[in-house]
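Hey, weird one. I pasted the Imidazoleglycerol-phosphate dehydratase sequence into the form twice and got a warning about non-standard characters only the second time. First submission, copied straight from the form history:
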Amino acid sequence: MPTSLNNAKHEEAVDASWAATRGAVSGALKWGVATAMLGGLGYAFSPVYRGLTIQFKAYIQMSGMVLGSMLEADARLREFEAQMRLRRRLMKEQAMWASFEEKYGKEEDDEE
C-alpha cells in the first residue's frame, strides 16, 4: 500500500523533531558543562561571583544550558533540512532519468 504525501510529510516532520531534540539535549549537556566550569572558575577567583545568591547562580547555569540547547537544536535542524533537500534532489533526478530511459530506452554500449 503506497504511503500518501501527507503521511510522508508527517514522518519527515517527526524525524526533524527528533533531530532537533537530539541537538537540544546535546547542546544543553555541552554548554551545561562549559557554564559549570566557568562557574567553578568564577567561584575560585571572583569574590563577586561567590557573593551571588544560589538562585542567581542556578539562573546563570540554566541560561547557558538553554542557549546551548537552542543553538545546537537549530544547527541539527538545518543539517537535517540540508539532507532532506539533497535526498529530494536525488529522487527528482532519478525520476527524470527513469522517465528519460523509459521514453528513449537505455543506452546500449554493445550495439554499434
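That's the output from the first submission. The warning seems to come from a hidden character in my clipboard, not from the data itself. Residues 54-104 form the longest helix (51 residues).
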